[in-house]
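Hello forum,

I keep getting stuck at the same step: I have a sequence, I want structure tokens, and every attempt I make locally crashes halfway through. Rather than fight my setup again tonight, could one of you with a working pipeline run this one for me? It's a single chain of 239 residues.
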Amino acid sequence: MKRILLFVTLSILLFGCKKEEKTAGEWSTLAIEKRQEIDNLIAHTACNDISEWSVFTHGEPYSCAPTHFPMHPSIKKEFDKLWADYLYFDREHTNAMIKQGIIIDPCWNDIWFSYAPLRIECRDNKASLVFISDLDVEESYAEIAKIYPRIEAYLAELTCESNEGWTYAMLYNNDCSASYIPVRRTNERPAIRTDIELYNAHRANIVNKEKPDCSDRTYEYPDGIICEDGKPVVNTKTN
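Reply #2:
Ran it on my machine without issues. Output:
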């Protein structure tokens, strides 16, 4: 009888104290609040000498772009603790969504795009990151004028002997459409990738600010790569 009572008592203690699982929404709220703490920490750190600041970069799981923060040595320890808490809440948010049956599409990084800040500067006594999306349209046009000749030179040097060993990269156009260029398939990062990422980021900045009418646009999609007269060519088809 004592054994039965002991078993019942232990069962009540174990199952009665079972931790209630948080929902995806609750984990999301915790992550958002922690992210706000991080932003407040940085915002309340005076920026007088930009040479004392650096850029903290982290690539998050299930994220198509890395995260960047201005970083000062005086807040690094506190930042690290807050960031570790944020990553935990964000990871639990993702796990909770998966448990709820939500399908999270991975980022295949099909579009080469530059997300990195161009520079860090002091603005109104606060450290700020400057991205391509912060530039004026004229600045992006000027940068494209420097970048595109390098892409053209890369394409001019490409040769092929077969249809094998090729992939493609997408280039944004100002009319909301895209064009595709051949890129040699390799396990290493192609040298031309940085220029393509910058080119696409500047084109996107121009389109977002000029807001062209894209309602009647016919879009083309890649439909294989062939070797034609010693040059790789990306075949396309319309939707």
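DSSP finds five helices and eight strands in the chain. If your local run keeps crashing, start a new thread with the error log.
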